[in-house]
């Protein structure tokens, strides 16, 4: 799994490599942004923060160092159980949707990075479930 997080291979499902994980993240995020906060994408681009730039550090590190250890282990339970890295893209999209109001209040790309670097209080399973079952 770890090798795929740092591979530019175009390997597909069920456990895609980095390019397809980022594409999946964006595909999951777009409906959320269109329905809930259509201006967030424009705001982030205005600040020089494309959507993929938010998730790239999380995905390449599999959220290690961003989430508490217990939450990383819960995430990896899903990765191993599903035999897929797709939960990483799903969680990345869920985090952006969850933090959309805070992101809209950011005035610089540096502020966006600071806000998104601190995920210590987030709970993995509820975010994944919200993204899967609430859209």
From TrEMBL:
InterPro entries tied to this protein: Rab-GAP-TBC_dom, Rab-GAP_TBC_sf, TBC1D19
Boundaries of every Rab-GAP TBC domain copy: 1-83
Regions crossing the membrane: none
SUPFAM superfamilies registered for this protein in UniProt: Ypt/Rab-GAP domain of gyp1p
Database matches in PANTHER family: TBC1 DOMAIN FAMILY MEMBER 19
Record's protein name: Rab-GAP TBC domain-containing protein
Organism: Haematococcus lacustris
Lineage: Eukaryota, Viridiplantae, Chlorophyta, core chlorophytes, Chlorophyceae
């Amino acid at each position: 799994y770890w090798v795929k997080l740092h591979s530019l291979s175009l390997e597909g499902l069920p456990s895609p490599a980095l390019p397809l994980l980022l594409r999946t993240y964006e595909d999951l995020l777009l409906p959320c942004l269109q329905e809930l906060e259509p201006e967030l994408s424009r705001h982030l681009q205005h600040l020089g923060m494309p959507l993929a730039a938010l998730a790239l550090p999380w995905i390449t590190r599999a959220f290690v160092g961003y989430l508490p250890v217990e939450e990383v282990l819960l995430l990896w339970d899903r990765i191993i159980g599903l035999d897929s890295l797709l939960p990483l893209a799903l969680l990345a999209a869920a985090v952006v949707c969850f933090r959309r109001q805070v992101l809209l209040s950011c005035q610089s790309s540096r502020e966006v990075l600071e806000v998104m670097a601190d995920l210590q209080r987030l709970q993995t399973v509820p975010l994944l479930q919200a993204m899967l079952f609430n859209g």
